[in-house]
Amino acid sequence: MAEIQLQRVGKSYDGKTMAVRDLDLHCPQGEMLALLGPSGCGKSSTLKMVAGIEPISSGAILFDGVDVSRQGSAARNVAMVFEDYSLYPHMSTYDNIAFPLRIRGTPHNELKKRVDGVVAMLGLGDLLAEPVRSLSGGAQQRVSIGRALVRDPALVMFDEPLSHLDADQKVMLRTEIRRLQTTAGLTSVLVTHDQTEAMAMADRIAVMSQGLLQQVGSPEALYHAPANLFVAGFIGESPMNFFAAVHTGSQLALRDLPGCALALDRLDLQAHAQDITLGIRPEDIVIGAAATGTDALPLQVRVLDRECCGDRDVLRVAAGEVVFHIEQPAPCAVRPGDVLPCGLPLSRLHAFDTASGRSLGARRSAC
Ligand SMILES: Nc1ncnc2c1ncn2[C@@H]1O[C@H](COP(=O)(O)OP(=O)(O)OP(=O)(O)O)[C@@H](O)[C@H]1O
Q1: Does this complex have an ipTM over 0.90?
Q2: Please, what sign has the CA dihedral across residues 288, 293, 296, 299?
Q3: What's the whole-model pTM score?
Q4: Closest residue (by CA) to atom 20 of ligand 1?
């Protein structure tokens, strides 16, 4: 397995607009790195450039310190797992897995040993003779992972591998892929638009937007210390709440909530900006009597509605005209129409420069 480095990699399809700009990334040997971002952010272009399917427009791609930018896919020994499995439907599980070795003319004994090893690793022993078209989606994807691994690749690229599966199979297979990836020490790149998938599977996540890398870090780092407004809003199942604020002397006043302000020195800002966006995660907001402590920004809210999400309830609330979300452990006694105090604990607040989007620091530094 290889160590992968991207150095200022750029991609333009038309010679004018950049689909990927100056991308610096490092995937150490044995790590799973997720490329995450909305549609059109440049993840597939990046995957294709790393795999050697698309040429790069600028920069360099290194495998184990060797520049492979001009090499094709085969020379880089990159295996791909696609969302649509890309198997031969009429062929058996065994023959699909053995296929990459057969076309390379691998001697029979060696081929059998390698296929048997992969079959055991993936628990596909009972399905060897089945034509893959008769298998469930999850089993087909396991066969396609087997086919990727059997050739002992330098890098495995997973391109939205769970997109075609139902919810149960998704959860099972993502655990399975993660187990395989860690036990076999696979260097892998996962391309996904699904943050839950990226958070559950990857060692580190590279968040992209409009061809630019926004932040790369562990799932925890992205969640607790987002580098900018984009990452703060993109990561988290219930998105972060944002409040526009402005300096008035030594105070930071919330723009849309007259009379609501806090002394600037109560925030641990690492830089200053005229217009600041405060952010807080829905689960960090406190409601009821516990909300009135001095270390919180107090607000009076009206509950608009309540969404039941199993072990937690999500409340949509309004303070004046400002609507935001609060998450509470379920069952929560609050009902639509209730008016109650809530507090935004200062230790949980994130602050961003509104103009640039860049983080100005957060009191909590969990990572
Ligand atoms: N073959 C191509 N020719 C021209 N433009 C392309 C080509 N492939 C991608 N693009 C453009 O490059 C930009 C990045 O696309 P890319 O497919 O890499 O993003 P993505 O994040 O993978 O999106 P999606 O999740 O929808 O596949 C987009 O503006 C897209 O229109």
Answers
A1: yes
A2: positive
A3: 0.90
A4: 40
